[in-house]
């Protein structure tokens, strides 16, 4: 928002001739339309999966070897930076072992764990579904935060 002092007339842009104004208007409309189209296309391609794979395993920590092989076979030939590939492997293995150790702690070995990796143009998604009891993150944070804060010397009211 611009504020002007009373009694002072703000400077006006120089008048443009009809032809020049039409050229400028046309150029601005072209740029605006191009940007909208580009944003629409990038939004479309950003959310458009390139490839998706699924794996279902039983609740067994020995299956980590199979999970690692599965991730490597899928992502090996895709143009993914090595650091991203390593992070994806780590996240998938960590998620699988957490499902086995925590969510399926008291469940039979035959209980399935489902894994999915989806590759998009600019990102990867790793999804893991287990059959364990639902976890209430907010309740756990409320339960744990006072302990953490008191250990640091702070108190929550």
Topology of this structure?
Layout lengths: L17 H29 L4 E8 L5 H12 L6 H22 L8 E8 L4 E6 L7 H15 L6
Antiparallel strand pairs: 1-2, 2-3
Question: Main attributes?
Answer:
elongated; alpha+beta; 157 residues; three-stranded antiparallel β-sheet
Overall morphology: elongated
Low-confidence stretches: 1-5
Order of helices and strands: HEHHEEH
Care to count the β-strands? 3
Strand content: 5-15%
Secondary-structure-based class equals: alpha+beta
Alpha-carbon Rg, integer: 28 Å
- Arithmetic mean pLDDT: 78
Compute the separation of the termini in Å.
41 Å
How would you sum up the major sheet?
A: 3 strands, antiparallel
Within the largest sheet, what's the order of strands?
1-2-3
By DSSP (H or I, 4+ residues per run), the number of helices equals 4
Binned, the helix content reads 40-55%
Question: Could you please describe the fold and organization of this structure?
Answer:
The protein is elongated. α2 (64-75) packs antiparallel against α3 (82-103). The protein has helices at 18-46, 64-75, 82-103, 137-151; strands at 51-58, 112-119, 124-129. A hairpin with a 4-residue loop joins β2 (112-119) and β3 (124-129). The chain is 50% helix and 14% strand. It has a three-stranded antiparallel sheet with strand order 1-2-3, with helices on one face. It is built from four helices and three strands. It is an alpha+beta fold and 157 residues long.
């Amino acid at each position: 928002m611009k504020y002007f002092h009373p009694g002072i007339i703000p400077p006006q842009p120089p008048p443009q001739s009809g032809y020049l104004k039409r050229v400028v208007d046309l150029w601005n409309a072209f740029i605006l339309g191009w940007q909208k189209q580009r944003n629409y296309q990038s939004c479309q391609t950003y959310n458009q999966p390139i490839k998706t794979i699924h794996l279902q395993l039983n609740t067994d920590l020995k299956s980590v070897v199979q999970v690692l092989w599965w991730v490597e076979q899928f992502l090996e030939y895709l143009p993914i930076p090595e650091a991203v590939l390593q992070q994806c492997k780590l996240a998938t293995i960590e998620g699988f072992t957490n499902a086995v150790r925590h969510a399926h702690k008291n469940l039979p070995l035959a209980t399935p764990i489902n894994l999915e990796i989806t590759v998009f143009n600019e990102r990867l998604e790793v999804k893991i579904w287990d059959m364990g009891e639902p976890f209430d993150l907010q309740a756990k944070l409320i339960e744990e935060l006072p302990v953490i804060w008191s250990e640091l010397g702070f108190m929550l009211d």
